[in-house]
Amino acid sequence: MTALWIAHVNVTDPEAYGEYARLAGPAIAAHGGVFLARGSRYVQLEGKDRARNVVARFPSVEDAVACYRSAEYQAALDHAREAAERDLVIVEENPA
């Protein structure tokens, strides 16, 4: 079953985070990830507001986790660690 990678982000260093985004996109695509939303309009109804929200679909939970653990994504993440406050969750989609 497909899985959603859902990130809620507050960017504190736009330059460093931009480098993360530049490197993360290809790493995500290499693992079958497709962006459904990136920095799009949103409405915060509950919880902590984060100005940037990202949703990507992967072929499976395992593919999404493999992406996160990959050397390419970890290299990208090195730029985001001190440049943003982030929450990231991977959720398996229910069948249609």
If you had to describe this structure to a student in words, what would you say it looks like?
The chain is of the alpha+beta class and 96 residues long. The chain contains 3 helices and 4 strands. The protein has helices at 14-30, 61-69, 71-80, and strands at 3-11, 34-38, 52-58, 84-92. It has a 4-stranded antiparallel sheet with strand order 2-3-1-4. Helix 1 runs antiparallel to helix 3. The protein is globular. The mean pLDDT is 96.
Number of strands: 4
- Runs with pLDDT <50, length 5+? none
The average pLDDT is 96
The biggest beta sheet is recorded as: 4 strands, antiparallel
Number of helices: 3
Terminal Cα span: 10 Å
Strand content: 25-35%
Structural category: alpha+beta
* Residues in helix, %: 25-40%
The radius of gyration over CA amounts to: 13 Å
Query: Outline, from the CA principal axes?
Result: globular
- Which H/E pattern describes the elements? EHEEHHE
Q: Order of strands side by side in the largest beta sheet?
A: 2-3-1-4
Quick summary:
The chain has 96 residues and is of the alpha+beta class.
Features:
single chain, 96 residues, alpha+beta, 4-stranded antiparallel sheet, 3 helices, DUF1330, Dimeric_a/b-barrel
Outline the fold blueprint:
Layout: E1 3-11, H1 14-30, E2 34-38, E3 52-58, H2 61-69, H3 71-80, E4 84-92
Antiparallel strand pairs: 1-3, 1-4, 2-3
Helix pairs in contact: 1-3
